[in-house]
Amino acid sequence: MHGIDFIQDLAVVMLVAGLVGWACHRIGLSVVVGFLVAGVLIGPHTPPFSLVTDKERIETLAQVGLIFLMFSIGMGLSLRKLRRLGLSLVLATFTGAIVMYNLTRVLGGAIGFSPVETAFLAAMLMVSSSAIISKILLETGLTHEKTGQMAMGVAVLEDVVAIVMLTILNSLVSIGGTHSASLGTTLGLLGAFIALAGIGGMLLVPWLLKKMSLSAGEELPTIVVAGLLFVLAFLADKAGFSLALGAFMLGAIVAETPHKTQIGRAFEGMRDVFSAVFFVSIGMLIDLQAMADSWLLILGIGAFVLVARPLAVTTGVLLIGGSTRESLRVGLSVTPLGEFSFIIAQFGVAAGALPAKFQALAVGVSLITTLAGPVLTRRAEAISGWVAARQPKWLEDWEEYYHRWLERLQQHERQNVLWQLSKKRFVQVGVEMLLVTGLLVFSEQMFGLVRDYLPVERSFPRGAELIFWSGLVLVAIAPVVAIWRNVSALSLLFAQVSTQGHPKAAQLAPMVETGLKLGAGLLLFLWLSALLPISGMARWLPLLALGFVALVFLVLRRRLIYWHSMLEVELAEMLTSGDQKFTGTTAPWMAAHSDWNLTLTDCMLPDLADCRGRTLGELGLRTRFGCTVAGVERQGVMVGNPTGDMILYPRDKVLLLGDPKQVVAGKEFLQQASGAPSASTFDEVRMQAVELPPGCGLHGRTLAEVALSRAYGLQVAGINRGGVRILNPGGEEKLFTGDDVLVLGSPDQIANFKGALRK
After folding, report:
1. Number of H helices, E strands in the chain
2. What is the pLDDT of residues 423-474, one digit of tens each?
3. N or C terminus: which one in the chain shows less Cβ crowding within 10 Å?
4. Alpha-carbon span 122 to 376, nearest angstrom
5. Is 501 exposed, middle or buried (0-12, 13-18, 19+ CB in 10 A)?
6. What distances in angstroms separate CA 739 from CA 381, 694, 716, 754, 756, one per listed residue?
7. How many alpha carbons lie under 13 Å from residue 299 in its C-beta half-sphere?
């Protein structure tokens, strides 16, 4: 049968990955390690256990797995989360990445790596594994401490660093190993693509999901998002970037929508399956002999990472004003490497820029850091305290002076009225320029995608191009006008401030404003002239389209400006709307205080948790263990300080507050699962009329007194009394002999009620 070999390989991959991953989980290792080991066991380099020999079939699925993996990582990082983390933590993360890059360059030169190999090695070591770090922080109870939240924030932001590094490396080498665009051009194109795809996606995806949620079933939005996921990954590849970039971006876009929880739940299974295939395929590429031959290199680089990564991250946190003790605790908590290191190594090997041993190197170093990560995190307080106590006096004085300087700088920024009034407009101008740059730079690729769908007349062979450019310019002209409006406002603002207090301010201000406008206009003209693509098409086509659109704009300029303003408002609302979730990086209002010996720990209730369906009052966590429930997250909605009558359900995330021993005991209790099946009879619920016989004991009693819901689990939907029907009767309604009572419940509940009436 066609494809039966593929089904056989997939069955082997899934089964072995599940068993080995389960074994690793049992001994306290990440399941990712199990997937990699599974790939090594069944791969072509370990005969006679080579159960899968055709790697191409599995690598195709691995690409799909990479897309789903990057989508889930992107959903963990939204623009709102970036704003909550703050610019200072972003600065600390990128500073740490730069320090790590330079330290790795020194290492690469010392061990004889080529510049390209050193660049790939630096990219592999610059980014940690947010999945592994979050697991370690959860297990050590540091998720909601300040340093734990900062460490998780750094790990999440390093995902962005990894995406940037993938793009830079993609420009550094191609499959043939040839050099491509410069670093500045690459970063500029990356920013343009992100602005173009990001703004377009943030306008389209939330609108589409909102419409479908109102008029379609739950499965249709999931299918549409899956289609958009592959489309954006495809477009990123066509634009010269990695598939991972497009998938990551769509995840970040979906994270901005109210449908994030629904989409995440729907994609959870697919992500788990295809991510496992991805990691298994990486394991299949690992040659154990190559790993054995490179064991000294793996140990050496592993030791280097355990020292260099804490040093680099500590430097970044110190830069934003953290103390030595706090900065070092954060640095020690973000040592584990993971998924991005594997992705970067695989890309380098596939591109021919790296030897095959780098696959084994990435896995070996990741394993070392993953094993050392929990130890360093648990001992971070003691290590940082030891270092801080032995800090030289001159360094301590310099640190205090630097902190005071930062405070003065921040105070000056808050008091600078000109900057406060203008910074928002500078951001808008930057985003609008990136959007227009993306439209013009990637116009050739966009035209190639739509060329076959545009009408072509023999008498006017370039009609399709003219139609395309007219539409493109029509889309681009609104942000260009918005740029000019912001530039005009900034010119007026700076002219007024710069001439304030001058004796001839009234005459100078218009002259300064005009000069600023002329300079900005010249820069805008040069910018647009440099971006207009002319290769492969006549030079006059964009100009002709611009003239046509200019006429349309003159007629519809007010409407276009209105539409653009509405889009800006929608984007602003989307980015500033509140988020009710609590996570390791979004609950600073519940940060634990170490001097009170209190800690916060969250735990997820299993599907078969013994406490499911019971109220917090019934569980009595405070009475039994001394801990309290500070919050419950259900389906993405946070309930703070819940009352005792709140019922817990499977997959609820419960936030426990208490001392370390109390929260550990409470967590173990909540996660107990005896495996007892659920007794739900939802599918069997029905309505049945029951006649009240003489002598049943219910004559003259009210529904509130009878309390059928408490005694039998039944609800009374109606009463038929002498042909008069009473629908949904209240608790004060009385029952009489001969009434036909319409009850709602399961067959067993109804049978118990009827049996009680006959007694």
Report:
1. 30, 8
2. 777 877 887 787 777 777 777 777 776 666 666 655 556 667 767 777 777 7
3. N
4. 22
5. exposed
6. 72, 10, 12, 14, 16
7. 5
| Cβ proximity of 345 and 356 under 8 Å | no
Torsion of the alpha carbons at 5, 9, 12 and 18, rounded to the nearest 10:
-140
Condensed to tens digits (0 to 9), the pLDDT of residues 230-260 reads 888 888 887 777 788 888 888 888 887 777 7
Domains 592-670 and 684-758 share a fold: yes
Residue 538 pLDDT > 50? no
pLDDT at 585: 39
In this structure, the number of other CB atoms found within 10 A of the CB of residue 357 comes to 19
Interacting residues of 726 by C-beta distance below 8 A, sequence separation 6+: 718, 719, 720, 733
Q: Is the preceding peptide bond at 48 cis, omega within 30 degrees of 0?
A: yes
**Which tokens sit at 590?**
């519940």
Q: 178: pLDDT confidence band, cut at 50, 70 and 90?
A: very low
- Tokens of residue 419, six digits: 């900057």
Tokens of 663: 């929260």
- Which DSSP symbol is given to 241? S
Residues 220, 227: Cα–Cα separation, whole Å: 11
pLDDT in tens, 640-674: 888 888 889 888 888 888 888 888 888 888 888 76
Residue 64 CA to residue 396 CA, distance in Å, equals: 51
What's the CA gap between 213 and 207, in Å, rounded?
10
Q: Which of 710, 713, 706 is nearest to 739 (CA)?
A: 706
- Are 274 and 280 contacting, i.e. CB atoms less than 8 angstroms apart? no
d(CA 431, CA 426): 9
Mean pLDDT of 337-345: 84
What does R_g of the chain's alpha carbons equal in angstroms?
32
HEC string of 251-284?
HHHHCCCCCHHHHHHHHHHHHHHHHHHHHHHHHH
Matching residue, tokens 């207090």: 501
Q: How many CB atoms lie within 10 A of CB 717?
A: 16
- Architecture field, domain 4-286+296-389: Up-down Bundle (1.20)
Contact 596, 639 (CB under 8 A): no
pTM score of the predicted model: 0.69
Q: In a 10 Å sphere around its CB, with 0-12 CB exposed, 13-18 middle and 19+ buried, how is residue 188 labelled? A: middle
What pLDDT does residue 589 have? 37
The superfamily CATH assigns to domain 592-670 is Regulator of K+ conductance, C-terminal domain (3.30.70.1450)
Which range has the worst mean pLDDT, 120-124, 213-217, 718-722?
213-217
On whether the 684-758 domain is CATH 1.25.40.20, my answer is no
Distance CA 90, CA 83 (A): 10
What's the distance, Cα to Cα, between the start and end of the chain in Å? 66
- Which of 415-429, 451-465, 471-485, 696-710 shows the lowest mean pLDDT across its residues? 451-465
Indicate whether 304 pLDDT > 90. Answer: yes
**11 conformational bin, left if phi > 0, alpha if psi -120 to 50, beta if neither:** alpha
* All structural domains of the chain with their residue ranges: 4-286+296-389, 417-576, 592-670, 684-758
Any residues with CB less than 8 A from the CB of 572 and at least 6 apart, and which?
none
Alpha carbon distances (Å) from 618 to 419, 607, 623, 624, 707: 56, 19, 10, 11, 21
Write down how long the chain is: 759
